[in-house]
Amino acid sequence: MKRSVEKYTEFETVPLWVGNRAVQATSTRNGEVTNPATGAVIRYVPMSNVVDVDRAVKAAEAALPAWRAATPTHRARVLQNFLALLRANENELAHRVSEEHGKTVADAAGSLQRGIEVVEFACGVPHLLKGEHSENVGSGVDCYTLRQPVGVCAGITPFNFPVMVPLWMFPVSIACGNSFVLKPSEKDPSASVRMAELLKQAGLPDGVMNVVHGDKEAVDAILQHPGIAAVSFVGSTPIAKYIYETCARNGKRVQALGGAKNHAVVLPDADLDFTVDALIGAGYGSAGERCMAISAIVAVGAIADPLVEKLRAKAESIKIGPGDQAGVDMGPLVTGAHRDKVASYIDLGEREGAKLVKDGRDIKVAGYENGFYLGTTLFDHVTPQMTIYKDEIFGPVLIVLRVPTLEEAVRLINANPYANGTAVFTASGGAARRFQNDVEVGMVGINIPIPVPMAFYSFGGWKNSLFGDLHIHGTEGIKFYTRTKTITARWTDAGTPAPGLNMPTLG
Predict the structure, then answer these.
(1) Tens of pLDDT along 390-427?
(2) Is 501 a member of any domain?
(3) Is the dihedral of CA 35, 349, 445, 463 positive or negative?
(4) Catalytic: 291?
(5) Are residues 41 and 97 in the same domain?
């Protein structure tokens, strides 16, 4: 695999990564990877089959005993080397993400930094793997716990964060002593193979990290493979539910993060200019292709009219173009099909009676007429019955709903089937405290529009935004990638009585 974006040939096929080397797939099916800014095919990606997935799992199984036996300190040092290599290659990785996803280079670099923070967290694994110990729980009896790896783990990751979301998974998993098989999105797969290369340079043994590509065939092969013990997923709610159910049937541990419809409540006492800037970034950053994007703004009382006017003015000022071009605020959407799907929601919003304040369908980017662009779009007077409210649009479409009170805003949010993230903008500590306590959502921001926790806290929503018991990264990530073993021990001396036939008691 060539090491820089510039060295890629126009139609290179992205390799698999198995046993610490680039290999060709046995599958003859290929998909196209496009540059969303131009619409051009820039490389191909193999659609892995059962044989390809099995080869990766077997490499992971072979590597597992020695890696699991390595000391936590040794594993942490490999991750420290990887951390240094990530930092040294930030620019290349950010450009690669921008080229295949379409987001701006600056936005890609920001998401890479959030992934790097998880690697920093995972470097502290010797402390995080400590168990509990109780002395003398019975006469001469001690009780303690061990945290041990679960085995071969797999990650299935989405197109919108081709570096950050994989970094939420495999560093924590391999730090805990597991081996790993990653299936990145087939829409932007190159960065995952590049990170696997960097892990090899960092000293990771052969087979601990493997990368396969593909679509549903590869996913199903992962979900049904008896050698895989745990699966992490981030994507849409229907697929998250399918993965959760399939893994459960196959006896696997699973965390499946689904979709979102994130609300931001704006109270009349909010700092309007600050709030508008925050909402514009949260709604239109990465062209709205974020699971934590704010897509529904709930304007409370008299703030609605001035809020909508300032949002419109800011939305009109956003510069749209290729993600690697200086001065561009928002790039294209990831594919032409996705751009058309998002545009169809704008058509539907008009038909359902929402007020279209800013229409992004007529955007033209000079010199990039074949790119997958859609301009910023803003709807007002949206109601909960409208499809543009009920569906996760996953594009640069902001909608505004109007309610009279904070209590009504909370009821609206709590009635929504999604519960990933939410935010409130206010100058009132009392109002913020009521909101954080009463809202039924997994991640809450107070005057922060995208409340993605730092790496030492865990990321995850509630309701239809998460299937499984444990969130991703942070301390819950450590719990997910380890199993607890409880030891009850007594060391006998001469004369220690043997237990009888009755149920033993320790007190």
Answers:
(1) 999 999 999 999 999 999 999 999 999 999 999 999 99
(2) no
(3) negative
(4) yes
(5) yes
